[in-house]
């Protein structure tokens, strides 16, 4: 069997393929350019919505989404701190805190006022079991609302555990790991505030 190598056809195919790849690349670039602003706008709206649930409107006259501070927590997570101000003074902050659940990492947004009290807690992401561990979501129950108004001293630090571990907080029926990880994440968030209070509140 004899194979005939046709250099002209190979070159033509290479040119066509190159033109196709170039055109596809240009199309992707144009799509990204056209949608960039709308994606950024939606991202900001989502962030404002999350912040609005843990940072009451009455405590600020600024836009916390635009008043940020980049920091790192004790576990090495890069976090963005959103600051609420009224008449120029920091009245509260909000930032992410992380916990380990039954199915992996859980991420929360917490709001803390200038006195160290929780303004609110909301779950941002998790992979917990539907119908069981997902009770940390407000749309599935009000369990996570119980933390509003609490602080490291209320209850005492040693009581920041689920009842099964000798703490104050209820676990879910048939599920302990998720609430245990959630309580621990919130406590860590409050400890972060306590350790960095001066920087967060801009106290000289």
UniProtKB/TrEMBL annotation:
Residues 101-193 form the FMN-binding domain. It is found in: Cell inner membrane. The keyword Electron transport applies. Its main location: membrane. The chain crosses the membrane at residues 12-34. The modification FMN phosphoryl threonine is found at residue 176. One of its GO terms (cellular component) is plasma membrane. It is a single-pass membrane protein. InterPro entries: FMN-bd (IPR007329), Ion_transpt_RnfG/RsxG (IPR010209). GO terms for molecular function: electron transfer activity; FMN binding. Its cofactor is FMN. Belongs to the RnfG family. This is Ion-translocating oxidoreductase complex subunit G. It comes from Chromatium okenii. The lineage of its organism: Bacteria, Pseudomonadati, Pseudomonadota, Gammaproteobacteria, Chromatiales. The gene is rnfG.
């Amino acid at each position: 069997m004899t194979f005939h190598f046709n250099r002209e056809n190979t070159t033509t195919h290479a040119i066509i393929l190159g033109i196709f790849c170039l055109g596809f690349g240009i199309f992707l670039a144009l799509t990204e350019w056209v949608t960039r602003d709308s994606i950024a706008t939606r991202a900001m709206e989502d962030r404002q919505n999350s912040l609005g649930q843990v940072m009451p409107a009455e405590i600020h006259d600024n836009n916390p989404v635009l008043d940020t501070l980049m920091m790192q927590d004790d576990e090495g997570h890069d976090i963005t701190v959103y600051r609420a101000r009224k008449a120029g003074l920091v009245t509260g902050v909000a930032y992410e805190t992380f916990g380990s659940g039954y199915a992996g990492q859980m991420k929360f947004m917490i709001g803390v006022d200038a006195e160290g009290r929780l303004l609110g807690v909301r779950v941002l992401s998790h992979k917990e079991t539907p119908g069981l561990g997902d009770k940390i979501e407000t749309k599935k129950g009000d369990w996570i609302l119980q933390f509003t108004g609490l602080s490291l001293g209320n209850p005492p630090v040693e009581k920041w555990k689920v009842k099964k571990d000798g703490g104050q907080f209820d676990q879910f029926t048939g599920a302990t790991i998720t609430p245990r990880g959630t309580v621990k994440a919130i406590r860590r968030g409050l400890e972060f505030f306590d350790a960095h209070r001066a920087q967060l509140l801009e106290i000289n």
